[in-house]
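How a chain folds remains the central question behind the approach discussed here. No coordinates are needed to read the tokens, only the vocabulary itself. For completeness, the protein is quoted in full, as a sequence line and a line of structure tokens:
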Amino acid sequence: MEVLDGSAGARDVSQRVADADERRLAWVYLSRVVEGPCAALSALIESVGVVEAARAVRECDLPESLRGPTRRRREIDAAADDLTTIERIGGRVVTPDDPEWPAWRLLGLSQLEAGRDPDSSAPLVLWVRGPRSLLESSERALAVVGSRCSTGYGNRVTAEIAGELAAQGWTIVSGAAFGIDAMAHRAALAVGGPTIAVLACGVDRPYPAQHERLLAEIAEAGLVVSEYPPGTVARKHHFLARNRLVAAFADGVLVTEAGVRSGARNTVKWARRLGRPTMAVPGPVTSAVSTGCHRMIRDGEALLVTRTEEVVDEAGPLRLSLPGSAGPVPGTPEHLTGDEAAVFAALPAIGSRLPHELTRHCELPVPAIRAALVALELAGLIGVDDSGWHRKPKGRS
């Protein structure tokens, strides 16, 4: 009779756990050594493995291309402390070894030409706060970015499009900045939809400080993500590097309002390099805060869009209908057809619209729209108040 050696099996398990811990500490150590993207270090890890790369950095057994980037912090090994800090605030570190790592989203970054842009490499690790899976949350996502000095027009358009997409299950990705970023996050939160805030500092440092409460709400319902270790302060070059992650996590990038020098154009640049669709909303020709959108549209950098359906057509999955069958209108109850389906689809998921406003979102005259609104109200699907017609929450009549 063969006698099974239980102690050998236990030793194997213990060894695997020890190896996993060693790799995690190596990833975290290297994350702090370079603090951000480093194509040369990523190449070294790909070549020799993360544990051997960490040893080479500690002992300065490196090619010339890595000695400069690692000189300042290679003697700082705070990996254990960083893991303790992130656990204390309820967060976690996600490494390429983890199932949650969004490998397919970040694949494009690793394939970019490093010599063209020093930031064109995948992050070493991602520091995360929030209950959702980063992998699952980025499966269907849209980045919404724009001016920090947004106008009422920009805020309204952002709230409508981001809110409608989030209500349909899209994840809204942005950078938690003032203006358009914050409005996009708030619109997603308002409908209980998923949202990801990508920071240019440690996830334990609210930035901007005035958005501490907003970031706390995102961490409770969505995800706050950064490639920078806990305690890292935001620096100017971090924001440009951060923008590549905003673009990488999404199926496309939408700019709802932006001036000529808006950082949103940098995010659009990354999206185009990664092969993601880029879109922009036009604004009043007299508005300086929309000149960036107009220039991107004119120069062919972004497609002009004005409503949620156009965004989905560009960034969403390919949808094919059977010949001769129009199929149900996306986002409407299946039993609706004709004018009623078109009008219901034109109403925002949050907020309201007047009949003359609906003419810009469906190809119907005002009399037909009014008739459809009455029918939808009788069916208990919509209501009306001083601000206009609006959808009723599901489950309420």
